[in-house]
Amino acid sequence: FSNRVQVNGAVLTPGSYSINEAKDLRELLQLTGLQEDAYLSRAIVRRLKQDFQPEMIGVNIKNILEGKEKF
Q1: Segment 3-57, tens digit of pLDDT
Q2: Cys-Cys with 40: which of 12, 20, 21, 62 at CB 3.0–4.6 Å?
Q3: What global pTM score does this model have?
Q4: Where are the extended beta strands (E) located within 1-71?
Q5: How far is CA 5 from CA 23, 37, 57, 68, in A?
Q6: How many Å apart are CA 44 and CA 55, to the nearest integer?
């Protein structure tokens, strides 16, 4: 599907979400909720670049939730 993101891992409600439901990763994580034992220091975001090549980006979930980083 276009304009959708897939969330899985240590979240309370994994699944497919419209990009219109959250403006950034912080809002998306607040929407899905995190499990109590979620590892917050690192997560992997996988996406397709404009040329449809896959890209993997490491992010710090704790910093994103605290507003120290944006993604």
Answers
A1: 889 999 999 999 999 999 999 999 999 999 999 999 999 999 999 999 999 999 9
A2: 62
A3: 0.85
A4: 4-7, 15-18, 43-48, 54-59
A5: 12, 23, 15, 23
A6: 10
Query: Residue type for 63, please?
Result: N
Counting beta carbons within 10 angstroms of the beta carbon of residue 32, is it exposed (0 to 12), middle (13 to 18) or buried (19 or more)?
A: buried
Please name the residue ranges forming H helices in 1-71. 25-32, 61-65
Of 60, 56, 61, nearest to 45 by C-alpha is 56
Q: Which two tokens stand for residue 51?
A: 């040329």
Q: How many CB atoms lie within 10 A of CB 43?
A: 19
**Residue 64 Rama label (left phi>0; alpha psi -120 to 50; beta):** alpha
Compute and round to an integer the Cα radius of gyration of the chain: 12
